[in-house]
Design brief:
eight-stranded antiparallel β-sheet, alpha+beta
């Protein structure tokens, strides 16, 4: 199941924006234009699947911080997120033509507590949710929610009222998707929970990426980089194919070679540099830029990639000479999964475009609202 579009309304600097999402979606822009809000909007869709949407909004300052602060139309104050997908595998199982496929769409609306209602004044409250599937004939609503009342369709297509009213802070996607009773809801939830967001790996002395990992096969990197050593050990000793990893590390780090001993109780790694071929430099000895690049390599070149990888300013702390190797890793990962890249480095964006042919979308801010340069409200570009 692949994400095809994302829209956000009423969130921070995102007054109203819709984006078509391809295999690789690349955003570039200056500081302060709202690039991170685009990234964060996608994170909040995942939080809805995880059941932590209200918590995540409260953690960033509550509704008073998260709501669009510009001029509003009359009516209820709402934040709205809408994610659309295509799903050829589900279409095939249901007997539809794969070329036609199915188009699941999930929308969630968040608002404020009514003045006379129970709850905390600035607590995010889920007002409405829908999950519909369009088979090319007409959209079928598989789940609907207004306030506390929720209905869904079971595996026989019957409309069922959910017996337990939901709290205003709970999402129906998380509650129903984890119940095992509604296959389509569960499939979509599993897809979104499979996304990984890598932003600002810690590089301080106590960084998780610098620590030994438990010796457990690790097919993909944790979001905090805490199993980086296990990811490298899995590539070296289980997959036994590190050609891409070795090449990118050598290109970025002046010919350095990754050293990964056979794990005992824990997995570890180090680097051998051409100037000191007999010595292994352990993670605690590496620079912030070196450990960050290695963490990005673990995220992009792991044994198995997640359904979607989102990187927010991956160039931070990297020397400019590392950017071509980073672009190589991004291009290779884009052949295996979906990528969403947010950067303020035009150099990195140009390097990625040169390798993939993907057009970088320039993020701008006009009248307080984040938008894409040259993009119309429909999502198409003026020059198309």
């Amino acid at each position: 199941m692949r994400l095809t579009s994302l829209s956000a309304t009423g969130y921070r600097s995102l007054r109203s924006i819709r984006l078509d999402i391809g295999r690789l979606t690349l955003f570039v822009g200056e500081n302060g234009v709202g690039k991170s809000n685009l990234y964060r909007a996608m994170q909040l869709v995942k939080a809805s699947a995880a059941g932590t949407l209200s918590y995540e909004i409260a953690r960033e300052g509550g509704m008073q911080s998260a709501l669009w602060t510009g001029k509003r139309r009359s009516g209820p104050v709402r934040m709205v997120f809408n994610a659309q997908f295509d799903d050829d595998e589900t279409a095939a199982r249901a007997g539809y033509c794969v070329e036609t496929g199915l188009a699941p769409s999930y929308k969630v609306e968040i608002g404020l507590r009514p003045p006379a209602a129970a709850g905390f004044a600035f607590e995010p409250q889920i007002k409405e949710e829908t999950l519909s599937i369009d088979s090319g004939r007409r959209p079928v609503e598989m789940m609907g929610r207004k306030g506390a009342a929720v209905f869904a369709r079971d595996d026989a297509g019957r409309r069922i009222e959910h017996p337990v009213p939901l709290l205003d802070s709970e999402t129906a996607l998380a509650v129903l998707g984890s119940s095992g009773r509604y296959p389509e809801i569960g499939d979509l939830r599993a897809t979104v929970l499979g996304w990984r967001f890598y932003h600002g790996f810690r590089t301080d002395r106590d960084s998780p990426a610098r620590q030994p990992s438990l010796a457990i096969a690790a097919p993909l990197l944790d979001e905090d980089g805490g199993n980086l050593a296990a990811v490298f050990a899995t590539l070296v000793h289980i997959r036994e194919d590190t050609a891409d990893l070795d090449r990118c590390i050598a290109d970025a780090l002046g010919g350095a070679r990754l050293d990964v001993p056979v794990p005992g109780e824990t997995a570890t790694f180090g680097l051998r540099f051409t100037e000191f071929p007999q010595r292994i430099f352990r993670p605690e000895e590496l620079s912030d830029g070196q450990i960050r690049f290695l963490a990005l390599a673990g995220a992009l070149l792991s044994y198995r990639l997640p359904r979607l990888i989102a990187l927010n300013e991956p160039e931070a702390s990297l020397h400019p000479s590392m950017l071509p190797a980073l672009a190589d890793m991004i291009a290779q990962a884009a052949e295996r999964t979906q990528l969403w890249i947010v950067t303020h480095s035009h150099t990195l964006a140009d390097e990625i475009t040169a390798r993939t042919g993907v057009r970088a979308l320039t993020v701008v801010r006009k009248d307080g609202a984040t938008s894409i340069e040259g993009m119309k409200l429909s999502g198409s570009f003026e020059d198309e």
